[in-house]
Protein backbone atom coordinates (compact mmCIF):
# COMPACT_ATOMS: atom_id res chain seq x y z
CA UNK A 1 0.00 0.00 0.00
CA UNK A 2 1.26 3.47 -0.86
CA UNK A 3 2.52 5.52 2.10
CA UNK A 4 0.81 8.61 0.74
CA UNK A 5 -2.91 8.46 1.47
CA UNK A 6 -4.85 10.19 -1.25
CA UNK A 7 -8.19 9.32 0.37
CA UNK A 8 -8.90 8.58 4.02
CA UNK A 9 -12.46 7.70 5.02
CA UNK A 10 -12.88 7.37 8.79
CA UNK A 11 -16.09 6.19 10.46
CA UNK A 12 -18.34 7.35 7.61
CA UNK A 13 -22.06 7.32 8.35
CA UNK A 14 -24.76 7.98 5.75
CA UNK A 15 -28.39 8.16 6.85
CA UNK A 16 -31.62 8.79 4.99
CA UNK A 17 -34.88 9.91 6.63
CA UNK A 18 -37.61 7.30 6.75
CA UNK A 19 -40.84 7.71 4.84
CA UNK A 20 -44.14 8.25 6.59
CA UNK A 21 -45.14 9.25 10.10
CA UNK A 22 -42.68 8.16 12.80
CA UNK A 23 -40.65 6.19 10.26
CA UNK A 24 -37.18 5.13 11.34
CA UNK A 25 -34.07 6.66 9.84
CA UNK A 26 -32.34 4.29 7.40
CA UNK A 27 -28.60 4.00 8.03
CA UNK A 28 -27.01 3.06 4.70
CA UNK A 29 -23.40 3.25 5.94
CA UNK A 30 -22.49 2.35 9.53
CA UNK A 31 -19.06 3.73 10.33
CA UNK A 32 -17.12 2.78 7.20
CA UNK A 33 -13.35 3.31 7.14
CA UNK A 34 -11.12 2.86 4.07
CA UNK A 35 -7.89 4.30 2.66
CA UNK A 36 -6.63 4.65 -0.90
CA UNK A 37 -3.06 5.58 -1.69
CA UNK A 38 -1.83 7.53 -4.71
CA UNK A 39 -1.78 5.26 -7.77
CA UNK A 40 -3.57 2.45 -5.92
CA UNK A 41 -6.77 0.51 -6.60
CA UNK A 42 -9.08 -0.50 -3.78
CA UNK A 43 -11.70 -3.01 -4.85
CA UNK A 44 -15.01 -2.60 -3.04
CA UNK A 45 -17.12 -5.73 -3.29
CA UNK A 46 -20.55 -6.75 -2.05
CA UNK A 47 -24.00 -7.76 -3.19
CA UNK A 48 -26.71 -5.30 -4.25
CA UNK A 49 -27.88 -3.29 -1.25
CA UNK A 50 -24.65 -3.74 0.70
CA UNK A 51 -23.85 -0.01 0.62
CA UNK A 52 -20.96 0.03 -1.83
CA UNK A 53 -22.62 2.38 -4.33
CA UNK A 54 -23.66 4.67 -1.45
CA UNK A 55 -20.02 4.92 -0.41
CA UNK A 56 -19.02 5.93 -3.93
CA UNK A 57 -21.82 8.50 -4.04
CA UNK A 58 -20.71 9.96 -0.70
CA UNK A 59 -17.21 10.51 -2.08
CA UNK A 60 -18.73 12.31 -5.06
CA UNK A 61 -20.93 14.52 -2.87
CA UNK A 62 -24.11 12.78 -4.05
CA UNK A 63 -25.05 11.19 -0.72
CA UNK A 64 -25.38 12.98 2.64
CA UNK A 65 -22.52 12.52 5.10
CA UNK A 66 -24.12 12.21 8.55
CA UNK A 67 -21.01 11.33 10.52
CA UNK A 68 -17.33 10.54 10.23
CA UNK A 69 -14.73 12.13 7.97
CA UNK A 70 -13.87 12.00 4.28
CA UNK A 71 -10.36 13.38 3.79
CA UNK A 72 -9.01 13.94 0.28
CA UNK A 73 -5.34 14.99 0.26
CA UNK A 74 -5.86 15.94 3.90
CA UNK A 75 -8.89 18.16 3.19
CA UNK A 76 -12.24 17.27 4.75
CA UNK A 77 -14.61 17.05 1.77
CA UNK A 78 -17.49 15.32 3.53
CA UNK A 79 -19.38 18.59 3.88
CA UNK A 80 -17.91 20.51 0.93
CA UNK A 81 -19.90 23.42 -0.47
CA UNK A 82 -21.23 23.41 -4.02
CA UNK A 83 -18.36 25.66 -5.14
CA UNK A 84 -15.82 23.36 -3.49
CA UNK A 85 -17.44 20.37 -5.18
CA UNK A 86 -17.03 22.03 -8.58
CA UNK A 87 -13.33 22.46 -7.87
CA UNK A 88 -13.09 18.87 -6.63
CA UNK A 89 -14.59 17.61 -9.90
CA UNK A 90 -11.16 18.10 -11.44
CA UNK A 91 -9.69 15.63 -8.95
CA UNK A 92 -12.50 13.08 -8.41
CA UNK A 93 -14.41 11.62 -11.36
CA UNK A 94 -16.73 8.66 -11.93
CA UNK A 95 -17.36 5.91 -14.50
CA UNK A 96 -20.88 4.52 -14.19
CA UNK A 97 -22.11 0.99 -14.74
CA UNK A 98 -24.19 1.30 -17.89
CA UNK A 99 -22.44 2.64 -21.01
CA UNK A 100 -25.79 2.70 -22.81
CA UNK A 101 -27.40 5.29 -20.52
CA UNK A 102 -24.41 7.24 -19.16
CA UNK A 103 -23.78 9.00 -22.50
CA UNK A 104 -26.15 11.58 -23.98
CA UNK A 105 -27.48 9.88 -27.15
CA UNK A 106 -28.05 13.23 -28.88
CA UNK A 107 -24.45 14.44 -28.48
CA UNK A 108 -21.46 13.46 -30.59
CA UNK A 109 -18.51 11.86 -28.86
CA UNK A 110 -16.55 15.06 -29.43
CA UNK A 111 -19.20 17.16 -27.68
CA UNK A 112 -19.42 14.65 -24.80
CA UNK A 113 -15.68 14.85 -24.20
CA UNK A 114 -15.57 18.63 -24.68
CA UNK A 115 -18.25 19.29 -22.06
CA UNK A 116 -16.10 18.92 -18.88
CA UNK A 117 -13.23 20.76 -20.55
CA UNK A 118 -15.38 23.77 -21.43
CA UNK A 119 -16.89 23.83 -17.92
CA UNK A 120 -13.34 24.26 -16.63
CA UNK A 121 -12.70 27.12 -19.09
CA UNK A 122 -10.56 25.37 -21.72
CA UNK A 123 -10.36 27.10 -25.09
CA UNK A 124 -11.73 25.37 -28.18
CA UNK A 125 -8.23 24.67 -29.50
CA UNK A 126 -7.03 23.26 -26.18
CA UNK A 127 -10.19 21.16 -25.91
CA UNK A 128 -9.71 19.71 -29.41
CA UNK A 129 -6.11 18.79 -28.62
CA UNK A 130 -7.10 17.16 -25.34
CA UNK A 131 -9.92 15.20 -27.01
CA UNK A 132 -7.46 13.77 -29.55
CA UNK A 133 -5.23 12.68 -26.67
CA UNK A 134 -8.15 11.08 -24.83
CA UNK A 135 -9.37 9.10 -27.83
CA UNK A 136 -5.86 7.82 -28.42
CA UNK A 137 -5.55 6.94 -24.73
CA UNK A 138 -8.64 4.70 -24.82
CA UNK A 139 -7.84 3.25 -28.27
CA UNK A 140 -10.70 4.85 -30.21
CA UNK A 141 -10.29 6.29 -33.75
CA UNK A 142 -9.93 10.03 -34.22
CA UNK A 143 -13.09 10.19 -36.34
CA UNK A 144 -15.13 9.12 -33.30
CA UNK A 145 -15.57 12.82 -32.45
CA UNK A 146 -18.13 13.15 -35.25
CA UNK A 147 -20.14 10.05 -34.35
CA UNK A 148 -23.01 9.36 -31.92
CA UNK A 149 -22.94 6.84 -29.03
CA UNK A 150 -25.36 4.51 -30.82
CA UNK A 151 -22.74 3.90 -33.49
CA UNK A 152 -20.47 2.14 -30.98
CA UNK A 153 -20.51 -1.20 -29.18
CA UNK A 154 -20.97 -1.45 -25.41
CA UNK A 155 -17.24 -1.80 -24.82
CA UNK A 156 -16.49 1.20 -27.04
CA UNK A 157 -19.09 3.29 -25.24
CA UNK A 158 -17.49 2.44 -21.93
CA UNK A 159 -14.16 3.58 -23.40
CA UNK A 160 -15.83 6.90 -24.19
CA UNK A 161 -17.08 7.10 -20.59
CA UNK A 162 -13.55 6.39 -19.34
CA UNK A 163 -12.16 9.08 -21.64
CA UNK A 164 -14.69 11.57 -20.26
CA UNK A 165 -13.65 10.71 -16.70
CA UNK A 166 -9.99 11.25 -17.65
CA UNK A 167 -10.61 14.59 -19.38
CA UNK A 168 -9.56 16.76 -16.42
CA UNK A 169 -6.68 14.46 -15.34
CA UNK A 170 -8.29 13.42 -12.01
CA UNK A 171 -6.40 11.87 -9.14
CA UNK A 172 -9.21 9.46 -8.18
CA UNK A 173 -11.88 7.74 -10.27
CA UNK A 174 -14.86 6.04 -8.65
CA UNK A 175 -15.61 3.07 -10.93
CA UNK A 176 -19.18 1.94 -10.17
CA UNK A 177 -19.59 -1.57 -11.62
CA UNK A 178 -17.99 -0.35 -14.88
CA UNK A 179 -17.77 -3.76 -16.58
CA UNK A 180 -20.84 -5.58 -15.24
CA UNK A 181 -22.95 -4.69 -18.32
CA UNK A 182 -20.32 -6.09 -20.72
CA UNK A 183 -19.69 -9.63 -21.98
CA UNK A 184 -16.69 -11.51 -20.58
CA UNK A 185 -14.26 -10.89 -23.44
CA UNK A 186 -15.10 -7.18 -23.50
CA UNK A 187 -14.78 -7.04 -19.71
CA UNK A 188 -11.22 -8.34 -19.93
CA UNK A 189 -10.22 -5.73 -22.51
CA UNK A 190 -11.76 -2.86 -20.54
CA UNK A 191 -10.09 -4.04 -17.31
CA UNK A 192 -6.75 -4.14 -19.11
CA UNK A 193 -7.43 -0.59 -20.31
CA UNK A 194 -8.02 0.56 -16.73
CA UNK A 195 -4.70 -0.99 -15.71
CA UNK A 196 -2.83 0.61 -18.60
CA UNK A 197 -4.32 4.03 -17.84
CA UNK A 198 -3.26 3.71 -14.21
CA UNK A 199 0.25 2.77 -15.27
CA UNK A 200 0.42 5.76 -17.63
CA UNK A 201 -1.18 8.41 -15.40
CA UNK A 202 -0.84 7.27 -11.78
CA UNK A 203 -4.59 7.69 -11.17
CA UNK A 204 -6.19 5.91 -8.20
CA UNK A 205 -9.39 3.85 -8.41
CA UNK A 206 -12.16 2.93 -6.04
CA UNK A 207 -13.37 -0.06 -8.06
CA UNK A 208 -16.90 -1.07 -7.04
CA UNK A 209 -18.06 -4.54 -8.07
CA UNK A 210 -20.10 -7.55 -6.96
CA UNK A 211 -17.59 -9.88 -8.66
CA UNK A 212 -14.60 -11.12 -6.65
CA UNK A 213 -12.80 -12.32 -9.79
CA UNK A 214 -12.99 -8.83 -11.30
CA UNK A 215 -11.63 -7.08 -8.22
CA UNK A 216 -8.87 -9.69 -7.86
CA UNK A 217 -7.74 -8.85 -11.41
CA UNK A 218 -7.53 -5.10 -10.94
CA UNK A 219 -7.03 -4.35 -7.23
CA UNK A 220 -4.11 -4.31 -4.82
CA UNK A 221 -6.46 -4.39 -1.85
CA UNK A 222 -10.10 -5.39 -1.37
CA UNK A 223 -12.75 -4.25 1.09
CA UNK A 224 -15.91 -6.33 1.50
CA UNK A 225 -19.20 -4.61 2.38
CA UNK A 226 -22.20 -6.22 4.04
CA UNK A 227 -25.25 -4.35 5.37
CA UNK A 228 -23.46 -0.98 5.30
CA UNK A 229 -20.27 -2.15 7.04
CA UNK A 230 -16.80 -3.27 6.00
CA UNK A 231 -16.61 -6.87 7.24
CA UNK A 232 -13.23 -7.78 5.73
CA UNK A 233 -10.37 -5.81 4.23
CA UNK A 234 -6.87 -6.66 3.11
CA UNK A 235 -4.57 -7.82 0.32
CA UNK A 236 -6.59 -8.67 -2.79
CA UNK A 237 -5.05 -12.10 -3.28
CA UNK A 238 -5.57 -13.10 0.34
CA UNK A 239 -9.15 -11.83 0.62
CA UNK A 240 -10.30 -13.36 -2.67
CA UNK A 241 -8.45 -16.69 -2.33
CA UNK A 242 -8.68 -17.36 1.40
CA UNK A 243 -11.42 -15.17 2.91
CA UNK A 244 -11.90 -15.10 6.67
CA UNK A 245 -15.41 -13.69 7.03
CA UNK A 246 -18.39 -16.02 6.32
CA UNK A 247 -20.01 -13.42 4.05
CA UNK A 248 -16.86 -13.17 1.89
CA UNK A 249 -16.71 -16.95 1.79
CA UNK A 250 -20.28 -17.04 0.49
CA UNK A 251 -19.43 -14.44 -2.18
CA UNK A 252 -16.47 -16.54 -3.30
CA UNK A 253 -18.55 -19.71 -3.48
CA UNK A 254 -21.20 -17.86 -5.51
CA UNK A 255 -18.65 -16.95 -8.20
CA UNK A 256 -19.09 -19.11 -11.33
CA UNK A 257 -16.31 -21.49 -12.43
CA UNK A 258 -16.07 -23.34 -15.77
CA UNK A 259 -15.68 -26.82 -14.23
CA UNK A 260 -19.25 -28.19 -13.60
CA UNK A 261 -18.06 -30.55 -10.86
CA UNK A 262 -16.27 -27.72 -9.07
CA UNK A 263 -19.34 -25.52 -9.55
CA UNK A 264 -21.56 -28.17 -7.95
CA UNK A 265 -19.10 -28.45 -5.07
CA UNK A 266 -19.20 -24.68 -4.57
CA UNK A 267 -23.01 -24.70 -4.52
CA UNK A 268 -22.99 -27.40 -1.84
CA UNK A 269 -20.44 -25.48 0.25
CA UNK A 270 -22.43 -22.25 -0.06
CA UNK A 271 -25.65 -24.03 0.93
CA UNK A 272 -23.89 -25.39 4.04
CA UNK A 273 -22.60 -21.91 4.95
CA UNK A 274 -26.06 -20.41 4.54
CA UNK A 275 -27.54 -23.12 6.74
CA UNK A 276 -25.00 -22.36 9.50
CA UNK A 277 -25.71 -18.62 9.26
CA UNK A 278 -29.51 -18.97 9.36
Automatic annotation (TrEMBL):
InterPro entries: AAA+_ATPase, ABC_transp_ATP-bind, ABC_transporter-like_ATP-bd, ABC_transporter-like_CS, Oligopep_ABC_C, P-loop_NTPase. Pfam families: ABC_tran, oligo_HPY. CDD domains: ABC_NikE_OppD_transporters. Residues 7-252 form the ABC transporter domain. PROSITE patterns: ABC_TRANSPORTER_1 (PS00211), ABC_TRANSPORTER_2 (PS50893). Keywords: ATP-binding, Nucleotide-binding, Transport. It comes from the Bacteria. Coiled coil: none annotated. One of its GO terms (molecular function) is ATP binding. GO terms for biological process: peptide transport; transmembrane transport. PANTHER family: D,D-DIPEPTIDE TRANSPORT ATP-BINDING PROTEIN DDPF-RELATED, TRANSPORT ATP-BINDING PROTEIN. Belongs to the ABC transporter superfamily. This is ATP-binding cassette domain-containing protein. It comes from Sinomonas puerhi. The lineage of its organism: Bacteria, Bacillati, Actinomycetota, Actinomycetes, Micrococcales.
